[in-house]
Amino acid sequence: MLNLDLQYFAADEKTEKATPKKRQDSRKKGQVPKSQDVNTGFLLLMVFGLLFLMGGSLKETLTGIFQHSFQEYITWEVTENQVYTVFVETLLEVSKVVVPLMGIAIIAGLTSNFLQVGVMFTGEPLKMDLKKLDPIQGAKKIFSARALVELVKSLLKISLIGTITFSIIWLNKDHMLMVSQTSVEGALAFFGRTAVIMGLASALALLLLSVLDYSYQRFDHEKNIRMSKQDVKDEHKNMEGDPQIKSKIKEKQRQMSASRMMSEVPNADVVITNPTHYAIAVKYDEDKSDAPYVVAKGVDFLALKIKETAKMHDVITVENRPLARALYQHSEIDQSIDEQFYKAVAEILAYVYQLQKKA
Fold first, then answer.
1. What 3-state DSSP class applies to 278?
2. Is residue 272 part of a domain?
3. Which of 114, 140, 286, 312 has the fewest CB atoms within 10 Å, i.e. the most exposed one?
4. What is the distance between the alpha carbons of residues 108 and 61, in angstroms, rounded to a whole number?
C-alpha cells in the first residue's frame, strides 16, 4: 500500500517541462511571463527622452500660453464668442504639449508589451472568477514566496531610485541655492533639466532591475506550468484519442458499413461463395457502370449473413472457390471488378440470367 502511495505521488509531481500545447493553452488564458518593471522603465525612458529632446519647444509653448493669456486674453470682453475663441486656441496650444507625450507613452507601452509577449489578444483574464474572491487563497498569496519576492523587489526599487534622485539633487545643491538669484526662465530651465536627468537615470535603473525581474518571471512561469508525467500522458491521449474510444468508434463504423452493405444484398444479381468462408455479392447495371461491381463482401460470420440475406430475397448463390477468394482480395465495395475477372463473372452472370429466364 505504501509503495502504491509513493508511486501515485511520484506520478503526480510536477517534474516535466510544459509541452507546446500546454504553453499554447496558458497563453490563451493570458498566462505569460511578463515584468511590469519593463513597461515602467521603458515608459519613463521614452517620456523623459522626449522631454530631453523637445523640452525647449514644449517650454516655449507653455510659456506662450501664459504670455498670451495675460497680455491679450485678459483685455478681451467676456462674451460667448470670445470665451469660445479662448477655449479653442488654448486647447490647440495645450494639445501641442499633451499629444506628443501621450503618443510616446502609448508607443512605449505597446512596444514594451510586444517585446515581452508578442502579439496576443485574449479576454480570459477579464472573465469573472469567484475563486479570486476566496479569502483563504488571498491569504496564501499574501504570505507566499512570490509575495516575499515582490516585497524585496519593491524595497530595492525604492532604495535605488531614492539614492539616484538624492545623489543628483546633492550634486546640484549649490546651483539650487543660487536659483533665487537667477531669472524665472533660468530657474525653470534648471529645474526642468534636473528633473529630466533624474527621470532618465531612474528609468535606466528600472530597466536594469527589470532584466532581473523578467528573468525571475520567466523562471516562475516555467515552474507554474510544469506538468506531471500523468499530465503528459493524459494530454497525449487527448491529442491522439483514447485507444478504447477510437476502437469503439471504428467498431461502430464497421457496424454501420456492414448494415449499409447488407441492405444492398437483395439488389445483387448473384452471390459468389467459397462456399463457407467467403461471400461476394455482384451486380451488373449498365446505367451505373460498364462492368459488374461488388455491392457486398465478407468472410466467416459476415459471409454467412450475406448468404442468408440472399436466400431470403431469392438471390442466386453460385459456388466458385478461387473466384470468390480472388474477388474478395482484389475488389472493393461499390467498385467495378478488375478486368482480369470479367470473363469468369460474365459466365456466372450468363448462367444466372438463364436460370432467371427459365424461372
1. strand
2. yes
3. 286
4. 24
Alpha-helical segments (H) within the chain? 2-12, 20-28, 36-71, 80-117, 135-142, 145-171, 173-177, 184-224, 229-240, 243-262, 301-312, 321-330, 342-358
Which residues of the chain are modeled with pLDDT < 70? 1-12, 121-144, 238-246, 249, 253, 257, 358-359
What's the rounded Cα separation, in Å, for the pair 12 and 220?
19
Residue 295: which of 267, 328, 315 has the closest Cα?
Answer: 267
Asked if residue 113 and residue 178 are part of one domain, the reply reads yes
Rounded to whole angstroms, the Cα distance separating 164 from 208 reads 13
Backbone φ and ψ for 296, nearest 5 degrees, come out as -160, 145
Q: Are residues 205 and 276 in the same domain?
A: no
86 and 189 inside one domain: yes
Name residue 30's amino acid. G
Q: Is 118 left (phi over 0), alpha (psi -120 to 50) or beta?
A: left
Instruction: State the distance between the two ends of the chain, measured CA to CA, in whole angstroms.
Output: 77
Give yes or no: residues 56 and 193 share one domain: yes
CA angle 28, 31, 33 (to 5 degrees): 130
**In the structure grid, which three cell numbers stand for residue 14, read together?**
510536477
pLDDT for 163 equals 92
Residue 347: which CATH number? 3.40.1690.10
Q: What is d(CA 257, CA 182) in angstroms, rounded to the nearest whole number?
A: 98
Residue at a domain's end among 168, 203, 226: 226
Q: Number of folded domains in the chain? A: 2
306-346, pLDDT tens digit by residue?
Answer: 888 888 888 888 888 888 888 888 888 878 888 888 888 88
Cell numbers describing residue 100 = 506628443
Residue 291 falls within a domain, yes or no? Answer: yes
- Residue among 107, 109, 95 nearest 58 (CA): 95
Q: Which domain range does residue 316 map to?
A: 263-358
In this predicted structure, what is the pLDDT of residue 1?
A: 47
Q: What pLDDT does 234 receive?
A: 75
